[in-house]
Amino acid sequence: MYQGQFVFAQIMDRVPWRRFQTCVDRYHGDRNVQTFQCSDYFRIMAFAQLTYRESIRDIVACLNAVPEKMYHMGIRSGISRNNLSKATKQRDWRIFAVHVRQHSAQILIEQARSLYGHDPKPVDIDATVYALDSTTIDLCLSFAGTPAKQHLVGTIS
Questions:
Q1: Which of 46, 77, 127, 132 shows a CA-CA span of 20 to 30 A to 70?
Q2: Residue 92 in contact with residue 32, Cβ under 8 Å?
Q3: 17 is in which domain, residue-wise?
Q4: Eight-state DSSP code of residue 126
């Protein structure tokens, strides 16, 4: 039986948690919170994004199906729909926006520099523009009869 880390835990090891905690402290993200910290919320939402979860119910059902693995994924607190929906309403969105925009992208760029800095075909990494986007847009073509959808489908084709 394999005893190593889960892939998700390896991905979360790349997150700069000290910088994340700085963002949490700046916007008072963990004020009056007893068990469901911002770090757990971030991990859960990252898991939901990476596994294409579509709703809070879907996220909770998926994670609660294997509660013994949640700890090994770095999620220390139990989750429920109530906890997750309250956290979504109460957490300041700037915690996650500042962290992802300023810190995670910089770390990925630094890793790319270290990996490709000695490449025989030098790439001017300082002059390269980096664009990171995690937006997912699901299209349902069953409503193709509506004018807005016809326009959207027409622009994609």
A1: 132
A2: no
A3: 7-127
A4: G
C-alpha 115/C-alpha 118 separation (Å) is 7
30 found inside a domain: yes
Residues in Cβ contact with 95 at an 8 Å cutoff, skipping those fewer than 6 apart: 23, 24, 26, 27, 29, 38
- How many domains would you assign to the chain? 1
| Burial tier of 34 (Cβ tally within 10 Å: 0-12, 13-18, 19+) | exposed
Render pLDDT for 50-98 as a digit per residue (tens, 0 to 9).
Answer: 888 889 999 999 999 888 888 888 888 888 899 888 888 888 888 887 7
Written as one string, the DSSP assignment of 9-68 is HHHHHTS-HHHHHHHHHHTTTTTT-SS--HHHHHHHHHHHHHTT--SHHHHHHHHHTSHH
Is residue 151 in some structural domain?
Answer: no
What tokens appear for 30 in the block?
């963990």
Angle 77-82-87 (CA atoms, 0-180°, nearest 5)? 70
This prediction has a pTM of 0.64
Domain assignment of residue 157, yes or no: no
Condensed to tens digits (0 to 9), the pLDDT of residues 26-50 reads: 888 888 888 888 889 989 988 888 8
